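Researcher: Quick sanity check before group meeting.
Model: Go ahead. Protein one:
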Amino acid sequence: MRMATMRTPEATFRALLDAACRLQNGDRDQVGKLAALYAEETDVRHPMAPLGDTPMLSREALRQHFAAARTAGLAGFRVEDVRVHHTADPEVVIGEFTYRGDGGWAVPGIIVFRIRDGLIVESRDYIDHLGLARATNTLDALCARLTGA
């Protein structure tokens, strides 16, 4: 077993937040590091995504997702207010956090993870997508896509 797979579920969640923050601040090397936190076969969903949930079912799908991440409008991106809630199932943790950036914007999020052998095998990501669209000045574009305009 690789050393990277020896992380606890909480350590994996914290590594995910750290790498996501670094990626949003322009460190493109984080794409592979983020993808490596997931199992080869995984089930990642965003149930509250305004345009509908498109499950990502593989590490490669996650790699493509992270590679497409943009940094525009996210100056000073950081993660704060991190809380980790442990459950009766040792594989399941709930991560609570707030994305923040320059300009005073804040976007809350909660992710429910199933992490096995240090790798994310399942997650449900509940992010304030509308707040993120406001923070990144993409709300008008999102509204246009929602209304078909």
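Researcher: Fine. The other one?
Model: Protein two, sequence then structure:
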Amino acid sequence: MTRRTGRRPGKPGTREAILDAARAAFAERGFDAASIRAIAATAEVDPALVHHYFGSKDQLFLAAMNFPVDPGQLVPKVLAGDRDAVGERMVRTFLGVWDSPAGSAAQALLRSAVSNEWTARLLREFVTTQVLRRVLENLDVDPAELPLRGSLVATQMIGLAMMRHVVRLEPVASADPETLAVMVGPTIQRYLTGPLPT
């Protein structure tokens, strides 16, 4: 009897091998440049197995990040309604995740990103491609401004998460989420759609 060669079939450990390869690819090359085919090759599996376990590249990225919610399901809620209130809805949705039991995974990721460059790169890719890009591409703003606007929004949102959940700065740490949404939302809105200095 001869031993089979080639790609490893699906078996125990295959899912974790794919996740390890995906984390490395997303951290090293970024979400856009990382391909399912390259991830499968690193994990020594057929690309069809990656799709079998995770479906799409977006779903693979979420699994690799171990993020508790799918931004693809939340962003439409942020965008639904008056365009001038997107900032407020974004803060409200953001706090809804971070303040929930599911937010503990996000908090752990943020803490790790502060001291680990590899995790910081993954978080940067996640925030940029899965959240900010999805919101900004649906707003009527100059495409050339998207990177700056997205970065400005990220400073405020990650700063809010850091002060509320890691540093626990009062009164922000215990403030009512609705109050924070009303207070921080206009700043986010200005970053999203307001005029930028020339």
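Researcher: One line on it for the slide.
Model: The chain is about 70% helix and 0% strand.
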